[in-house]
Write a structure and sequence with these properties.
8-stranded antiparallel β-sheet, 6-stranded antiparallel beta barrel, 7 helices
Length: about 375
C-alpha cells in the first residue's frame, strides 16, 4: 500500500509564516483561494514549476528472480542405446552445434547398413525400370509390367529417404550420410549428442562409461536468451497489468511482461508476473535477483492525466492530500490521487479536472508549508 510521508509543522515555522504575512495588508482569501502580492511571493520564497504530463508512471519496486523461459527448457534423450564414450560438458553454458557427449552404439552401424541396402536395391530396380521402359516403347512389355517396375522404384526410394531421415534424427550429419553413400562403406559407430540451442546445461543424468538405453533422458537444456524474471506482485496491481506492458529492471534496462499467472498464491495473496528481458550479453543467470518496477499507462477515454512533480509539492490541507496550483495571481489547493512516489518524485492525477484557462498546471514546488500557513492564518483572522 502506498504511504504518503507525513509533513510536520513546527510552531516556530508557523509563527514565522504568520508574522511574514502580517507585514502585508494586500493579501486576501475567498472560497479557498489565496491572492498574494509580488512582494509576498518573494518574502515567502515561493517557487512555481509546470507539472510534467507523463504517459507512464512507475510503481514501487519489487524483488524478482531470473529463470529460464518454460518454453525453452528441453530434455535431451539418448537417440540409440549404447555406451557413453566421451563427455565434453557436464554443466554451464553450451553453444548451438556443440558436441556435449558421444555414444558408441552398435545400432548406429545397423542403421547405416540398412541405408546402404536400401540404396543398393534402389539402383537395381531403377535399372529394371529403364529396361522395361525400352521394352514398352518397342511393344515387348505390357503397361502393367511398367507400372509394377515404377511401383518398386517408388517403394525403395521412400525406404531410402526414411533411412536417411532416421540417421539424421539420430544425430548422423548430412555430410556423414553423403560420405556413407558415396563410399558404400559403413562409417563410425560414434553418435554425437549435439546442443540444438545456445543455452545452459543442467540435470546431467549419466556418467562417462555408463550404458544408456534408447530414449533414456540424458540432461536438460535451458535457453539463456531471452530470460524471464519472476515477480510476485499484489493482486490489485496484477489486475492493472497486462501482457506487453513495460517494466524497468535495475541494471538491465527495460523488459516486457510476457505472462501474468491466472492463479493467486493463497499464503501471500500475490500473483506471479513474468518479465522477459534481453540476455544477449549473458549477464543474467538463473536464480539471480533484481529489482523491478512496472511502468503503468493511463489508458481509456475517461482516464485522468498523470503529472510528475518534485515530492515536496505534496501537503495535507483540510484533511485532504493536495498540491497548491497558481492560476494568474491566485493560489488554489487541488485535491489529488497519488499514483506513486519514486526517487523523490510525486506522480498524481487531479481528483477534479483542471478548470484553468491554460492546459498547463503550474504547481508550487517550494513554499507549500508557507502557503498552508497563510490559508490557516487568514481563516483564524476571519474567525
Amino acid at each position: 500500500m502506498l504511504t504518503i510521508p507525513s509533513i510536520k509543522f513546527k510552531k516556530k515555522v508557523m509563527a514565522s509564516a504568520v508574522i511574514s504575512l502580517s507585514l502585508f495588508l494586500s493579501f486576501n482569501v475567498a472560497a479557498n483561494e489565496l491572492v498574494l502580492t509580488d512582494a509576498q511571493y518573494q518574502s515567502l520564497g515561493l517557487q512555481v514549476a509546470e507539472a510534467k504530463q507523463v504517459a507512464q508512471y512507475p510503481t514501487q519496486r519489487f524483488p524478482a528472480e531470473a529463470m529460464f523461459h518454460p518454453k525453452s527448457i528441453r530434455t535431451l534423450s539418448a537417440p540409440l542405446s549404447g555406451k557413453i564414450s566421451r563427455l565434453n560438458v557436464v554443466h554451464g553454458s553450451v553453444s548451438k552445434g556443440q558436441v556435449i557427449a558421444e555414444i558408441e552404439s552398435p545400432e548406429l552401424l545397423m542403421l547405416q547398413s540398412q541405408l546402404l541396402s536400401a540404396s543398393s536395391d534402389l539402383k537395381v530396380v531403377q535399372n529394371e525400370l529403364e529396361r522395361v521402359k525400352k521394352l514398352r516403347r518397342s511393344g515387348a512389355a505390357s503397361a502393367k509390367k511398367l507400372q509394377q517396375a515404377q511401383a518398386d522404384v517408388d517403394k525403395l526410394y521412400a525406404e531410402k529417404m526414411q533411412q536417411k531421415k532416421s540417421l539424421q534424427l539420430m544425430g548422423f550429419s548430412k555430410k556423414s550420410i553423403q560420405k556413407l553413400l558415396s563410399s558404400q562403406k559403413i562409417q563410425s559407430s560414434i553418435l554425437h549428442i549435439v546442443s540444438p540451442i545456445d543455452g545452459q546445461i543442467f540435470d546431467l543424468e549419466f556418467r562417462l562409461g555408463e550404458r544408456v538405453s534408447q530414449n533414456q533422458p540424458l540432461f536438460s537444456l535451458g535457453e539463456t536468451n531471452p530470460m524471464l524474471l519472476n515477480v510476485k506482485v499484489p493482486v490489485a496491481l496484477a489486475n492493472s497489468l497486462k501482457k506487453g506492458d513495460q517494466a524497468k529492471v535495475s541494471t538491465l534496462g527495460l523488459g516486457v511482461i510476457e505472462h501474468i499467472d491466472p492463479e493467486v498464491d493463497a499464503m501471500t495473496q500475490t500473483v506471479d508476473v513474468h518479465v522477459e528481458v534481453d540476455n544477449r550479453t549473458h549477464r543474467i543467470r538463473p536464480g539471480q535477483r533484481f529489482q523491478v518496477l512496472f511502468l503503468m499507462s493511463q489508458g481509456g477515454e475517461h482516464a485522468r492525466t498523470v503529472y510528475q512533480v518534485p515530492l515536496n509539492s505534496i501537503t495535507q490541507f483540510e484533511g485532504e492530500t493536495v498540491v497548491f496550483i497558481k492560476e494568474g495571481k491566485t493560489i488554489k489547493p487541488k485535491m489529488i490521487t497519488v499514483k506513486n512516489i519514486n526517487n523523490q518524485q510525486l506522480y498524481f492525477s487531479l481528483k477534479q479536472p483542471n478548470t484553468g484557462t491554460s492546459n498547463a498546471l503550474n504547481i508550487f514546488v517550494k513554499g507549500s508549508t508557507a502557503i498552508k500557513s497563510a490559508f490557516e492564518a487568514s481563516q483564524e483572522s476571519d474567525a
